[in-house]
Design a protein that fits this description.
156 residues, Lipocalin, globular, GXWXG protein-domain-containing protein, DUF4334, GXWXG_dom
Length: 156
Amino acid sequence: MAGPEEQFIQLTKATGLVPESTVENVYNQLKPVPPSFLIGKWDGGDIDTGHIGHKLLKDMKWAGKDFRSVDDGDPIMVYDAEGNRVWREDWGHCSLREMVYRGVTSTAMIYDQKPIFDHFRYVTDNMVAGAMDTPKLFGTKGTYYFYLTRRSSSSL
């Protein structure tokens, strides 16, 4: 049987809807990551569980996240009309902190201006799994699952 890391990678390749419970089960088995692990530039993708976040981020042409330090990051990078990666200023900046989520202490990204916590878990040295916790925005109607892959030109 494949480990949770391999299972998560397979879920990122799914082309149709994936049951949220399937993603949650795999995510909950992944190991934590320290905040410093995330420093750099990351491309973003998601697993379509039918969560409203999938459509919202697709419509805004979400590109990923950039972290200059644990105290300074850009939570929403998007592609502009020319295909350049740019920061969505209206989403503000963010910081990284260790936080307990589902019984595991790992890195959480905290938006400076929005009631959102993105909780990260380790998949590979170049991929992390994310669970967006947004009870004040979307209620308790599920978790938005996404992933980040480290950009090869990751220096900031």
